[in-house]
Specification:
Oligomer: heterodimer
Mean pLDDT of chain A: 92
Number of strands of chain B: 9
Number of strands of chain A: 11
Strand content of chain B: over 45%
Helix content of chain B: under 10%
Distance between the termini of chain B: 38 Å
Strand order of the largest sheet of chain B: 1-9-8-3-4
Largest sheet of chain B: 5 strands, mixed
Strand content of chain A: over 45%
Largest interface: A-B, 25 and 26 residues
Helix content of chain A: under 10%
Distance between the termini of chain A: 37 Å
Structural class of chain B: mainly beta
Low-confidence stretches of chain A: none
């Protein structure tokens, strides 16, 4: 079956613009996660969804970042008024259930470059 | 969340066995130990998971001592394609995984 897909694969934007990043999880997976990875660094947890609700938003770096998930499937991560420090690879993952015990399946990521 | 500590980098040669040790001194009773592998320009992928003793699959083995305060990922006879970053994580059904910096394994010819 299809894995996790993300779009766009690359996004170049100008400072101050808004961007939307999309994630299509594996069908039937109730949990969805967003991470950020700066060059040469580990993954930084941003937010996760259980169904359409986000029990843990603690990782969002600022109020410029928001995410939503509709229909228990597709999720969108929105970054408003982008800054150069937002440049990173944004990774999405899904798992059958939420929680650190469950295997997460990652998408290929969206590489965001803010000029 | 239990914090993990692992070497920043390791070098090896093709055909050798590689052991990467991770410490997790404050692991909770209901935590599992999971290892992920990440190739350049890709998302991480699950390698192996265990709770105690030894777990083996087609890719690797995971050794966990009785006190569970550390674990060792063993990769038998590595090849150049095993060059990647390896993450050690602990977690349970009630919390989220925290990915640290991982261990950068470089396999040389």
């Amino acid at each position: 079956g299809a894995g996790v897909s993300q779009s766009p694969s690359n996004k170049v934007t100008e400072k101050g613009k808004d961007v939307e990043l999309r994630c299509d999880p594996i069908s039937g997976h109730t949990a969805l996660y967003w991470y950020r990875q700066s060059l040469g660094q580990g993954l930084e947890f941003l937010i996760y969804f259980q169904g359409n609700s986000a029990p843990d938003k603690s990782g969002l770096p600022s109020d410029r970042f928001s995410a939503e998930r509709t229909g228990g499937s597709v999720s969108t991560l929105t970054i408003q008024r982008t800054q150069q420090e937002d440049s990173a690879v944004y990774l999405c993952a899904s798992s059958s259930l939420a929680g650190g015990y469950n295997e997460q399946f990652f998408g290929p990521g969206t590489r965001l470059t803010v000029l | 969340l239990a914090k993990t500590t692992q070497p920043i980098s390791m070098d090896s040669y093709e055909g050798q066995e590689v052991n990467i040790t991770c410490s997790h001194n404050n692991i909770a009773t209901n935590d599992y130990i999971t290892w992920y592998q990440q190739f350049p320009s890709q998302g991480p992928r699950f390698i192996i998971q265990g709770y105690k003793t030894k777990v083996t699959n087609e890719v690797a083995s995971l050794f966990i001592p009785a006190d569970r305060k550390s674990s060792t990922l063993s990769l038998p006879r590595v090849s150049l394609s095993d060059t990647a970053v390896y993450y050690c994580l602990v977690g349970n059904a009630g919390n989220m995984l925290t990915f640290g910096g991982g261990t950068r394994l470089m396999v040389k010819p």
